[in-house]
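Hey, resending since the last one bounced:
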Amino acid sequence: MTAALVVDGVTAGLGDLQILKGVDLEIPFGEIHALMGPNGSGKSTLCHVLMGKAEYEAAGSALIGGVEIMGKPVDERARAGLFEAFQYPVEIPGVSLDDLVTEMGAEAGDGFAARLEAASDSLGMDQFRSRAVNSGLSGGEKKRSEMFQLAVADPKVAILDEIDSGLDIDAVREVASMVEALRSDRIGVLIITHYSRILRYMNPDRIHVMIDGRVVRSGGADIAEELEAKGYDEVRRELGLATAEPGSDDPFTELP
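The structure tokens again:
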């Protein structure tokens, strides 16, 4: 069966700065994968490049359900079935959530109305649909709105960029539950995160570790706990990579 997402040899940079140095990644339909790595490793850059952010000079191949998206504009990537949930969802004054999903429906196929009502009921979104997108919402409510849009869009691939950022523990549990509820043979999910915290409330099929612009290790969910116990510098040493400079960010050194 064709995979939901296949990334092959993707490179990207900004001017003389090379950030991604040949990323290979595959996510089958029906699976939830996590991409972990220290600050500056290229995780969010990969997300931006896959979505088509214009300022990056990017090369390589990325297939959504077998369809090449590299080189295409953002709207064509979305139509191919790619969805991004943002680390910091922005407010959109003057545009209600209902306005937004109505526009999404104009591009959707059969079953949109049923998905809309089912997602609204299950996520408790009725009270927010007449309000401007993300206006006055808490961090957890904004992430719930993102999950609502994701459920309505019904994409082939969902990239969730640090969706646990800034959330308290109850909100992290809630978001993790929402992501697990999306699991089906119609979608592949990639969660980008620094920490193992959100993964404790989920059942990720595979964990990928990115360091210095490359995926350097892939395996089962136990990798996340190993990273929290050892930190990223230990992974660097095990793989014979240069360790981070003193004082640089290794997020696991901040944990109690």
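The mean pLDDT is 88.

Sorry for the duplicate.
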